[in-house]
Amino acid sequence: MPPVHTALVCVALPGLAISTEQGQLTGHGLDGFYRAGRRTLSRCQVKVAGREPLPVQARMIGADRARFVGTVRASADSGPDPDVIVERTRGAEGTERIVLYSAASRALRLSLEVALGTDLAELASVASGWPGPELPATVNDSGLRWTCATGESAVTADPPPADALASAGLLRWQLELPAGGSWTVELRVRTDRTKNHRAVGQSAASPLAQPRAVGDDPGIQALLHTGAEDLRALLLRDPAHPSDTYLAAGVPWRCGRAPAEALAAARMTLPLGTRLAAGTLRSLARTQIVGSGARSGLIPGPLRDAGPHLPPGCTATEATLLFPVLLAEARRWGLAEKETRELLPAAERCLAWLRTAVGDGTYLADPRPGGPFRCETQAHAHRAAVLGAELLDETGRPGGEGLRQWAQQLRAAFQEDFWVEDGGGRPAVARAPDGHPLPQLGAGTVHLLDTGLLGSGALAPGLLDKTRTEHLARLLGGPAMDSGWGLRSLGAREAAYNPFGHRSGAVRVHETAVAVAGLFAAGHEKEASALLRGLLDAAQTFGHRLPEMYAGEQRTQGGAPVPHPAACRPTATAAAASVLLVSSLAGIRPDAPAGTVTVRPVGSAPLGEIGLTGLRIAGGPFSVRISRLGLAMVEEAADGLQLGM
Questions:
Q1: pTM score, two decimals?
Q2: Which residue from 477, 504, 496 is spatially nearest to 564, judged by alpha carbons?
Q3: What pLDDT, in 10s, does the model give residues 400-421?
């Protein structure tokens, strides 16, 4: 895949605009406007007075906007200074606004030329290096049009050009730019798909509240703001049920639905309301396998590479276990009882699949059948059983006691079978089918700390006891795992460690955020604070738009995290991680059915004072302020919600 780590990617799905820092769309690489996975415009090159602008600045000004500034010496007597500034604002929805500003002391007669072209290629073809030839253009109204067997695209200009040359794909204007004046033209890309694909996040129908963080640390404020923008940009509608929305996995490589990532991201965004969770659950419930076979209840998903020590894992297993967890926790945050009961049958099928897959054994193999018993899979399964049992009990459905008994059995066996006595002990990354443990230390163990939310603000029991949790916390905070920029996916001392390996050493933002939240909840504030600070410092170098991963190289004085060339940016889980981090700092634990919310902030207040507004609990706004002493004050809450500290 071509590298995208330096690209400026504007996102308002299903629209994309991918640009280099030069600003000109040349038709090379991934450059261009995209709509629903097809490149609608690959070339957009500007010349002023016959010259290309000299690029001087390129930056993102929003999740869906990028601004490019260039300069031109349009007159021979201007000396060394440019006398025309060219500003281009590019939007993911298919617009480009070109503004010429005069810095000359007299009026300038100029020509503006915009060369356009496209191949109408699929994104996958562009990424693989086989986009196809540029298509011939025809003049259409106030612009150009391209057609092929698979679609069409058109560019219109306002004001219309003086000349439109189809053979060269060229639009031309002749203009007089007064001294100190400006002139603007807007290009708009349209396709046959435009009417059927509208960005959810740019409309009032967005299911996510708009959070805001203020306080002593500007890094967490910027991270939350950018993360919330990216989440809205990644929203997609279910094609068959447009009222249901979910998050695409990431841009540009994974613009579609990935069940495990969609559920994980929706879970992290519960503090922004339950509408996204409900839409995600409904959409995935329609894909669930039903019937009487062994796969009945499974939510389909692809295999995922797991690094050098394990075979690929099955995201269907992870998604099926996350479904009842998200439903149970969404109910705590305020999902209506009617919606809960509508989704309950699908959650019951997930839990029934779990019991069937385990059978008479203790552990859940992944992938099924015959795969290893992964540490993180047992953590997902245990959480699903504990939260699922309480969900069934509270909604008057049978099956909770059996799940609870199995969870207790798993908890007792896991302490012995998955603990490797080596220098104080560590959880094994997995057990092979023959029973021997795989002792490598990886970031998958962080899911042992993510236990889930029960009623009355209580946390579910985990698979590790207090002593073993302390050991794990020290390992995660040690130099083998903590790179200084976040948590490595594989310890630096392990065989086959690769700082760029996406499951063998790279820092993955999602796992680091889960570790931070879990360590704070377990009371290991020193280790959690160090990982949090590393993540915030890394975010600053990425313009607060964190990629899904970056190299796990050790942090050095004055250094910066090294980008991963194939990482998606933005991604749903990395953007949602910002919400998880701020909510874990505040320690917000709601129980909407009981009409209560407990706030247990981090006592050490690692980021100083922080105020959070724009959150949602029980259908109403929620705001809380954490002081520099680690004390919480709820400033806004839904009527009737009882508060506890």
A1: 0.95
A2: 504
A3: 999 999 999 999 999 999 999 8
